[in-house]
From TrEMBL:
Pfam families reported for this sequence: DUF4845 (PF16137)
Name of the molecule in the record: DUF4845 domain-containing protein
Organism: Marinobacter salinus
Superkingdom field: Bacteria
Length: 129
């Protein structure tokens, strides 16, 4: 009995070597981006949580900007956030309200002379007790 080689099942050979190489490069590049950019986003989430936890802090509205920055830095060091500078935090007071602005960039070297820049900006209005 002779097989029919022209049927669709007989012509399927799977992915070619070129297709497999393109897929490996694509998913390898995607994995590299996740590994390089992921920690910056996780640190930003921690920074947001530290700032949000200041809302309702006793005496926040009577503290000076330097004291508020020190309080934020203590919370960030407890949460193991490194590479964040206090100069990126600006504290303004409007009566009972304390307005905290955080504006910073994170730069990572991807490979050779290719870098990534992620810009984060947050603003919080809080009331102390």
């Amino acid at each position: 009995m002779k097989k029919n080689n022209l049927s669709p099942m007989g012509r399927q050979g799977g992915a070619s070597a070129l297709t497999m190489m393109v897929m490996v490069l694509f998913f390898g590049g995607l994995l590299t981006l996740v590994l390089k950019l992921g920690p910056a986003y996780l640190d930003d989430i921690t920074i947001q949580e530290a700032l949000e936890s200041l809302d309702g802090t006793k005496g926040l509205s009577t503290m000076g900007p330097a004291q508020v920055r020190t309080l934020i830095n203590k919370r960030l060091s407890v949460n193991n956030v490194r590479g964040f500078e206090a100069k990126n935090i600006s504290v303004e007071k409007d009566g009972e309200l304390v307005v905290i602005n955080v504006d910073y960039e994170v730069r990572n070297n991807l490979f050779s002379n290719v870098d990534t820049v992620i810009h984060f900006q947050h603003e919080y209005e809080m009331k102390g007790q």
